[in-house]
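Design a sequence for this backbone.
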């Protein structure tokens, strides 16, 4: 594949992840608005995201396995089309049930696109550039939190919460155009099958690595799912706080390739998980009687995202290196674990919120993050070998 077509393809895949990320997390920034508009409690509104995450977790490996014999370009475009349609459906929702159904459809599209994008990016890259290419494709996901989600909040404040979902629909349509023009119809990636999926489900090493990701994401979502509520509690602007998270994520993506090259993917992953264990308790400062300045939340979120949100990049590099013939299935199971962790983390956060208030969220998430760190150490030891750097 020549350099220019490859560059266009990587840009299109990154744009697709921008659409997926905006569709996934747009609800986070407008959670209080949706709760008021649909006349439901804020803790129950968080279930809209839990439902998305659970639907992604269940559908992703099955969708990837069933679609394995089709053109990668065609599958990518179909997945983004479903996301765009679901986003429009979310914007038109007049009650909780309609919104929930639309979110399930968006999750199916995202669960199909994201592992496919990573596998294609890995396949079309030179071996020495694979870590950096994965970081660039994942950069679109981080950009969604820096620009897509905050942009949705700004639009929602001006035009209503529905505008946040319509923004993700527009981004998905743009990504479709880019991929239709820049992604080759035939790409040499391992073609997954239902049989490979069944085999992967019994691979203990793969499941252990996926559990590490599930716990890391779960700890993050205990706090992130309620970030708009925390912003109100701390006297901060939710749009600015979400923007700071996105900016930190962009920094993580831009530096991930270099850090992985120096420390290796396993070391990169462990540092990100360990940093979360240290930082999450700071979100519970009011719980122990410390009243922080309202501006502190944004800077805390920035550091948290920069150090912790790039763990997925290192995780993807590890899986694609360990399982070169099952890359897409491994990534799909990892995506399942990631979103299952998000669903459980959001539900756990809702429980902690209901039991002890928003000030307990950081401590709750830190416990989950500590479990992820312990399992990541066990996973690295069990692998029995060092994985190549860039």
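Sequence:
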């Amino acid at each position: 594949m020549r350099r220019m077509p490859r560059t266009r393809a990587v840009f299109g895949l990154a744009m697709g992840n921008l659409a997926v990320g905006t569709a996934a997390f747009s609800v986070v920034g407008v959670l209080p608005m949706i709760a008021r508009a649909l006349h439901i409690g804020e803790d129950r509104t968080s279930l809209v995201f839990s439902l998305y995450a659970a639907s992604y977790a269940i559908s992703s490996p099955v969708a990837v396995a069933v679609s394995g014999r089709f053109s990668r370009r065609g599958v990518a475009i179909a997945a983004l089309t479903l996301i765009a349609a679901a986003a429009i459906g979310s914007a038109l929702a007049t009650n909780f049930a309609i919104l929930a159904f639309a979110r399930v459809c968006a999750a199916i599209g995202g669960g199909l696109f994201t592992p496919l994008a990573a596998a294609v990016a890995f396949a079309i890259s030179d071996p020495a550039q694979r870590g950096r290419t994965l970081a660039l494709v994942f950069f679109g996901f981080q950009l969604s939190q820096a620009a897509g989600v905050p942009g949705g909040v700004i639009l929602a404040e001006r035009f209503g919460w529905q505008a946040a979902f319509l923004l993700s629909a527009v981004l998905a349509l743009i990504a479709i155009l880019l991929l239709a023009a820049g992604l080759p119809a035939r790409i040499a990636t391992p073609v997954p099958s239902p049989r490979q999926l069944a085999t992967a489900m019994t691979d203990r090493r793969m499941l252990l690595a996926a559990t590490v990701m599930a716990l890391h994401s779960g700890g993050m979502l205990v706090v992130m799912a309620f970030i708009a509520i925390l912003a109100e509690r701390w006297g901060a602007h939710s749009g600015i706080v979400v923007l700071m998270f996105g900016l930190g994520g962009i920094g993580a993506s831009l530096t991930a390739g270099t850090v992985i090259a120096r420390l290796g993917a396993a070391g990169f992953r462990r540092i990100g998980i360990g940093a979360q264990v240290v930082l999450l308790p700071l979100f519970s400062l009011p719980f122990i009687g410390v009243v922080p300045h309202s501006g502190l939340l944004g800077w805390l979120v920035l550091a948290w995202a920069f150090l912790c949100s790039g763990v997925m990049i290192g995780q993807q590099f590890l899986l694609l290196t360990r399982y070169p013939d099952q890359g897409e299935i491994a990534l799909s199971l990892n995506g399942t674990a990631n979103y299952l962790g998000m669903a459980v983390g959001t539900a756990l956060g809702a429980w902690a919120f209901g039991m002890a208030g928003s000030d307990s969220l950081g401590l709750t998430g830190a416990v989950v993050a500590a479990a992820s760190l312990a399992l990541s150490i066990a996973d690295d030891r069990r692998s029995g070998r060092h994985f190549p750097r860039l």
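Confidence is low (pLDDT under 50) at residues 385-390.
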